[in-house]
Design goal:
heterodimer, A: mainly alpha, two-stranded antiparallel ribbon, 2 strands, B: alpha/beta, four-stranded antiparallel beta sheet, 10 helices, 33% helix
Chain lengths: 252, 308
Amino acid sequence: MLNILKMDLHRFLTNKVLYLMLLIYTAFQIFGIFMMKQYPVEYDGVPVSSLNASEFIQVGLAQTPSWVLLYVTVFAVYFYMSELNSGFYKNYVSMEGARIHSVLSKVFILGLFTLFIMLTMVISDFIGRNIFFGHASLGDVGYFMKVFFGQFALHWAFSVVVLLLTMLTKNAIVSLGIGVAIALNVPGMVIETFDTLIDGINVSQFMLINTVKTIRDFHDISEVIHVASVAIIYLVLFSFIAVRYKVKEDLR
Amino acid sequence: MSQAIIEVNQLTKRFKSNVAVEKVDFQIERGDIFGLIGQNGAGKSTLLKMIGGLMYPTAGDIHLFDRTVEGNHPYFERMGLLIEDAGLFPSYSAYENLDLIAISYGLKDRKNHIYDLLDLVGLERTNKKKVRNFSMGMKQRLGIAAALLGSPDVLILDEPINGLDPQGISDIRELILKLNQSGMTIILSSHILEELSKVATKYAILHEGKIMEINTKDELLSKCEERIELEVDDAKVVIPVLENRLNVRDYKVIDDQTVYVYDTHVQSQQIVNVLVEEKMAVHSISKHKQSLEQYFLERTGSRGVTYA
């Protein structure tokens, strides 16, 4: 397990695409804050420029399309498909346990990428807000950590959903298309429609992207548990399906 | 005790209604260069992928090193694979690709091991050149180096000479023979029997997923060699005449009445003339000549098809 993880980690950290994506993301994020200064935006009657880091992150991630989700989609598809298309997996996959370890390693790398992009988001916000809003208040650190790690877990789970889709379709374009549709919360909107049609049902609150996009009060422990539960269930369930699929897959 | 290190029994692979490999049986012994010959689409790659642990059989079983293996068995680690295209990242150099594989194997002293392998396959001077800029021959050689990285007991090479120029083919052939001399068992597939015949010690002809025939090198050459087949009253009497009058040295007495003459300087008509002069009866005389390609086409029922 550790050796395959080391290999994926080596590929991940020496890949210029990773740094290019983070750089482009930083540029767009700071540009986005600049645009907020030019055309002031309000959330719940409060100017966005006056929000602290925790609130600013939540408001940013609640927008459609969520750029973080789109970047995660692109990276998940790229990282898996580049190995599949090159046939590189043939070099190691016949080792004992390699199929399981390979998927778990990809899940870990996607978690790392998600962490990197979210840290980049926080740093870009800090720089952009400092430059264009004249302040970059963090607010309550404990609250900020709950927001950050809650959103990180949800985004990581989303990356694993995209990984499984990519494994199933084995096609970059199709995977990107479906991944973007999910990032745009198309399935969530469909489920919401069903929810409105049937009384007493609220399945959409357990949908991953709905959970990402709902602005919550993380002081409320039940909200924290809800976010953590959704993230863990999606992460474990989709990782498990991905491993089972890879173990049974005929590698052509 | 059996020396077979690979044995497949009734091995079958179906993709929905398409049977890619059907009830294949064979054994490969330690030190063999096992040539798998078949047209494109005959099922060679599918068969090799099952032996290499990339695909699961629909039926039948595989024994590696005297053990039945299934699923993700550790014995599959002892196979070095180059199946279809070499699995390499095009944006990485030869060294970087091998380094990634070496990391996945947990190899110590990666640098020296990789440089030794690059030297072995003649790619020691590629430096930072990316694989996407390699020629087909260089990619194949790097693929072989990748397959050798884990010091396998068995090397599986699927169509390793595809797309290579004559020099590239010759280089790969030399490399295969060198590896075999070091004790490595090699499975080699090709759709060109002529090329396989230069290295393989055992041959299986695969056609539409089925093994049509398995021959040793001697058996195959015997079936394809050029000779005059002579049927007379008494072979023992005829031999001295052929030796003294026609200087025939290379021949084989098949039975009391049949002699095969392999000396190419002798013509059938000369043999008839000499035996008639010696008042010996000739019941039949015929020239036997079949190229390896003709032999293969005959076995696969593909006469009229020309292979490059």
